[in-house]
Design brief:
With 200 residues, the chain is an alpha+beta fold. It has two helices and eight strands; from the N terminus they run ββααββββββ.
Length: 200
């Protein structure tokens, strides 16, 4: 610390009465910048202008590099977020697909006519469990594919026997296994029996 410096606060009777005054910054001279200036002022100005132009060009280059780096990072961030969302969606779809046989088992159980009051209670409890499970799967985007009474659509219906080459006018007359879509994509086609519209 140099003599007369004001780096420390001035203290008077235990109280700070003045904050340190920031010393003026010194501008580096040409020798500190590694420049040898000619004695001729015009040449010195010309040299300094060239140095300034070079420094600005370097600064522009660094700025372009930083902008490219920022753009690359933004693209990386977006790509990572998109991949993460796709991974979550794939995991969700895998879980839903694995639960479809459980839904099919519930449907098979509901097809059974209860013979006793105990069976009726058992089926009622199963229906409650089924509705809870299906409500959660609906939150993930699962929906039932309509089947009975619908025109046959090979994109969403799977016929138990091969439909005729001319499948126009075919109606779904019975559903043997429920079909499902998940977020608009078919994850299980409805297994159906068909008949011609005029025969149904």
């Amino acid at each position: 610390m140099t003599e007369g410096s004001t780096d420390e606060p001035v203290v008077f009777e235990g109280e700070i009465v003045a904050e340190p005054v920031e010393t003026a910054r010194t501008v580096p001279g040409p020798h500190q910048l590694g420049l040898e200036l000619p004695d001729d002022p015009d040449q010195a100005v010309s040299l300094l202008l060239r140095e300034l132009a070079d420094a600005r060009a370097d600064a522009d280059g660094y700025l372009d590099d930083l902008r490219r780096l920022a753009a690359d990072f933004d693209n990386y961030r977006k790509r990572t977020a998109r991949e993460q969302a796709e991974n979550v969606e794939r995991a969700s779809e895998r879980v839903v697909r694995n639960l479809l046989p459980v839904l099919d088992s519930f449907d098979a159980a509901f097809a059974h006519e209860p013979q006793t009051p105990t069976e009726e209670k058992l089926i009622a409890g199963m229906r409650s469990t089924y509705h809870q499970l299906f409500a959660e799967l609906q939150k993930e985007g699962l929906e039932v594919i309509p089947a009975p009474g619908e025109p046959f659509d090979p994109e969403i219906h799977e016929a138990v026997s091969s439909p005729p080459a001319d499948d126009r006018g075919l109606l779904v007359v019975a559903e043997l296994r429920r079909g499902y879509r998940l977020k608009g994509r078919v994850v299980q086609a409805a297994l159906v029996a068909l008949d011609h519209a005029d025969d149904a």
